[in-house]
Amino acid sequence: MNSRPHVAVVGATGAVGIEMIKTLEKRNFPVGKLTLLASARSVGKKLKFRGEEITVQELTKTSFGGIEIALFSAGGSISKEYAPAAVQAGCVVVDNSSAFRMDDSVPLVVPEINAADVKWHKGIIANPNCTTAITLMALYPLHQAFFCKRIFASSYQAVSGTGAKAILELERQVNQIVKGQPVTREVYPHQIAFNVLPHVDSFLPSGYTKEEMKMENEGRKIMHHPSFRASVTCVRVPVYRAHSVAVSAEFEKPVTVEAAREVLRKAPGLQVVDEPARNQYPLPLYQAEQYDCAVGRLRKDCAMDNGLCFWVSGDQLLKGAALNAVQIAEELLK
User: Fold this and answer.
1) Residue range 157-182, pLDDT digits in tens
2) How many domains does the chain have?
3) Which domain, by its residues, includes 285?
4) Is 309 a catalytic residue?
5) 144 and 200: one domain?
6) Which of 83, 147, 273, 327 shows a CA-CA span of 20 to 30 A to 58?
């Protein structure tokens, strides 16, 4: 691969696409040329990159000639339709959708955890689910040290995880309530302002949602830990940006708070924010637009042997999506 590759962002005008462009610039990724691709309705829009305006082009099957890395963030159906065409054109696809994550021939990568898996790609590398990625940033270092058997977790997921329309919906509803107007809904089945919805993604016959099962399924693959078990409740909260997760983890080896804190302090991409006496703990408000995730509220789980509770928070548009994708692209250049 060229040391200054021709990069494309697919879904460039979406919430994650915009973050991908910003992240390529901020991390000084050696982009030789940047091509922005999106659906017909976004064609002609201009987006800034390194001070220049780049015009969005229409995504077609023939868009990928000469492109070396394509960062996809336009949803699973678009990925399934266009990623194979990109691979055929000689491009490596880093896909942010769920389309290929559980495909055995596709690496599913969080660079701080399993960067080596990038090596066996056959043209497509998958970016994990945002909640899973943020949780594993804190869980994996603990698993390495103490061997994690299972977790029980609840997520507190920001509306930007659903996309730009959901951000506008929360804003609109807050305004409607403040002004005493009737609340209107488009994106979510219920009012999200001043409410929480125990419903992220679609329900499965088991009663879990797809999002909830991603933690177990993707966690097993990323951590190379086939017996890992995760019982999760995913909850949408009226927060604009950054997901948080409350985790109770059970380990094979005895774990103390002190030993866990030592392990987490050394973990890449993770800040320990844990001084409850000073009201210091991770907050989505402060993790928004930060590359690192933050972990805190460390304590022994009083309902499990060898158990540890913690709270982890991270920007799901960055570590959960755009940043992780760019980090994978950085691995490709190594």
Assistant:
1) 999 999 889 999 999 999 999 999 99
2) 2
3) 132-315
4) no
5) yes
6) 327
How far lies 70's CA from each of 92, 256, 313, 318, 328, in Å?
Answer: 6, 43, 28, 17, 11
pTM for the model stands at: 0.97
How far, in whole angstroms, is CA 234 from its chain's centroid? 14
Give CA–CA dist 13/16, Å, rounded. 8
Gap between the Cα atoms of 46 and 65, Å rounded: 22
Residue 1 lies in a domain: no
Which residues does the chain have with pLDDT short of 70?
none
Q: Tokens 């107007």 map to which residue?
A: 181
Helix or strand holding residue 242 (H, E): none
pLDDT in tens, 74-87: 999 999 999 999 99
CA distance 138 to 157: 17
Residue 121 annotated as catalytic: no
Marked catalytic residue, from 6, 91, 130, 309? 130
Catalytic-role residue among 6, 121, 143, 243? 243
- Shared domain for 56 and 73, answered yes or no, is yes
Sign of the Cα pseudo-torsion (138, 143, 218, 70, in order): positive
H helices of the chain, in order, are: 15-26, 76-88, 111-114, 130-146, 164-178, 210-223, 257-266, 284-287, 323-333
Q: Which helix (H) or strand (E) holds 184?
A: none
Cβ 283 vs Cβ 313: under 8 Å: yes
**CATH value at residue 108:** 3.40.50.720
